[in-house]
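Reviewers of the previous submission asked for a worked example of the structure-prediction workflow described in the proposal, so we include one complete record here. The input consisted solely of the amino acid sequence. No template or homolog information was supplied to the procedure at any stage.
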Amino acid sequence: MTNILDLPLVARVRRNHAVEHATIHVLSARNPYLQLIGHTTLSGFTLYGWVRTEEVASAVAEALDRLRAGEYHLAVHPRCGTNLAVGGMLAGLAAFAAMFFPRRSKSRLGRLPDVMLATMVAMFIAQPLGLVVQARVTTLPEVGGMFVRRINRRQWGRLVIHEVTLSQE
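From that input alone, the workflow returned the following structure tokens.
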């Protein structure tokens, strides 16, 4: 039976996600005040934020080189949406459990402190768990023969968008 994470399209998105994170790590190390948002796609990734195209190209090249050299930690980023998704799911499950499986008979309003405590504990657990989910599920740092096919820059007012298209040899 095939693992869904090993399916070619899923593996491609996971690799692109790893390169996106590594690129953001490289750009952030060069400019700690840089504000970027990334979005992974089937063909590569998109960066939203004020950064020069030459810097993006250089950072992607460095990110690929460093991932190939085994710096797999670059594939995981603390501000990834995966962390938010894991946190939201855990908080929702914790709130549901606290609301519908009370330790003792209480009114709905009386269960509110239990719900709040359960969601806070869930959010505390979510950060390290989100990093584990990134490392094992949503990214794949084994980038092998990946290369940049092109980088397209667009600008809408003050918003700069770089679409990075990646390919595999």
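The beta strands are 37-40, 44-48, 146-156, 159-168. We consider this example representative of the routine output the project will generate in years two and three.
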